[in-house]
Amino acid sequence: MQTKYWVRPFTRRMNPDRLYGRVQRWVDFMWPLAKIIRRLPKGYAINWRLLVADYSFLGLQGQMLKEWSYLDTFDMLAPRYDRPATRETFGQWAVQANLTDIDAYYSPHGVVLRARTAKRS
To answer: Domain containing 39: what range?
Structure first.
């Protein structure tokens, strides 16, 4: 289970301005450590677990990387409603929708589903 799901019960009902301020302070506080962790193999993934969104793997750097971190850390903590579904559930939905050639897999950003619609006669 991802760290954000442990923290969200405390953050999802917060005033968005207040939450954003706290996120900025958290990212600012963690930023020196995140820079060090980022140097490790797949260190960006560790940073995400520490609630510091890290897009360094996309080549972002400097202030742009930090701005994205503020925004996406806020986005991961703010949703009031989030019902993650498993790969298997996505596959079941595809079957129910009469799709074929179903391929559901996990990616760094969630479940990806690829499928084809049934041929029409």
So the answer is: 3-77
CA separation, residue 83 to residues 23, 26, 60 (Å) = 22, 25, 29
- pLDDT higher than 80, residue 74: yes
Residues 8 and 55 in one domain: yes
pTM of the model: 0.70
Token readout for 38 is 């980022």
Distance CA 114, CA 116 (A): 7
Cα angle 43, 90, 94 (rounded to 5 degrees) comes to 140
- Per-residue pLDDT band for 110 (boundaries 50, 70, 90) equals confident
